[in-house]
Amino acid sequence: MAVDVEIDVQLLKSEIKKTYASVSDEPERDFIFPTGRPWADDLGYPPELANVPDSAVESFAGVANPWELGRLAAGERVLDLGSGAGTDSLMAAQMVGPEGRVTGIDMTPQMLAKARAAASEMGLANADFVEGEAERLPFPDGSFDVVISNGVIDLIPDKDAVFAELNRVLRPGGRLQIADVTIQNPVSEEGKRNIDLWTG
After folding, report:
1. pTM for the full model?
2. pLDDT for 177-187, tens place per residue?
3. Domains observed in the chain
């Protein structure tokens, strides 16, 4: 749905970057949301998690388990929307194998640096990480077989733009595996303008 209240979107994005830069730089800190390998284990993440370096998983901040929607097949092309430190991307790269390809996109440089370092540590040549925003994906139409995402779309005010872009970059017949936060009741106008409620 389009956002119909006045939100300073640039301020919101700046605050989200600050929050997730902190998750990257200070993973031992207590956040309002759970983080790290124990949280991924509690969510029932697949066995590929064991191969992902602690340097990436310590900054895991997903909200649920997108892998409950199914595993990936060898050779699939995958987009990880809001890839963070790369936990889901690195698991996906293992699942799709060397003939597949995983691209993580995130707007937080600190998280991208962690993801790239972890991919290098794992020797994964089939995973790359791009800085960008979900509302304007820098990929051609039909680039991906699958889009995975964990706890990211809820942070973006313009959901219509995000889903239009996901539809555009997915090949016909492609699929979404999204884990995210939803609400059951309308949010007040004041709540929609509260940056702290958006960021975490």
Report:
1. 0.87
2. 999 987 666 65
3. 9-184 (3.40.50.150)
